[in-house]
Amino acid sequence: MPAPRSAPVRRRPPQAKIAQRVIPHDLRPVALRDELVELGDLFRAYQQRTEPDLELLADLHERKAQAFTTWADVSGITSLRMEARRAEQAATAARFQHQQRTGGIADSDGPAVSRLLTAPTQGDHARSVLAYVADHSPLPGSEARLLTLMLTLRTAHKGTGNLVGQDLNALGLTDPEDLVEKLTGCGWLTLPGTAGDLLASRPENPTPITIPSLVPRDGEAGPFTFGKKMRPKLSGWAQKVISDKKLRKAKATAGTRLLALTLATQTDAAGRLGPGGQGIALHALTAWVPIESGELQHLVDQLTTADWLAETALTDTQLTGQLTERVLPLTCPLPA
What is the pTM of this model? Predict the structure, then answer.
């Protein structure tokens, strides 16, 4: 009799890994799992290179930071978020080394720009806050939008933060006390005292504030993917923009400061407005800065006078122009 055949051994498919972590086969969304698998393969392929490519490495780390942040959000694993932050730092370091080797920014004809927000992912986070506030602002008008934005940046991580009177007085608002009372009256903002108490508070005794809609509930993640160390960087960047010396000297309105903040996130690496420096669509701009299109020329003129903008052209459909060299450090270039 012939010997019985042995049963075939079923082999499990090889486990996909990235950064020594196993990527679960049932991870959802599928697009996230595919991105992690591809990144793992790309990092292993990079390790086999005979010559380094720091620009490619920085791009890989930036993609890893975004993917790990999303993975942390869907899984609730804190260590993944820490890994994402390390990837952001690695991307910044690789980009800086690339600039040193090439003598400047590769996609710019000018010298290297030392930006306040150094990594592209930080610019993405800044744009995410602007977009969120545009969709969730509780009150109409550019003054309310600017105040809502700055308060959101102060409380973005857990919905709570500290504020002093000078923070509000620096925004160029017509009546900050009335605006704060409206925000507390509609329930968007919570204070332990009155709006007057907030305006009178000083750095040695700041006022704790809460935005209930930003407070995470039942272990769920909030609307933003960045961590608590990123929040003060974004808040500091925004404060630097709106309190620019020449804007203060010109007594720029809240609308003008909000426009300056928005334009700083909508340039290419050389400071030209819009994706690829081709300009910004007017309907998009007025969604971020809640004004009538007829008012926009006045705000653009104010920014030109304050040495923020140059070579501008405003049509019925778009705004083109260039941010000046002095404010390039405040820009967050769009992805190429």
Answer: 0.68
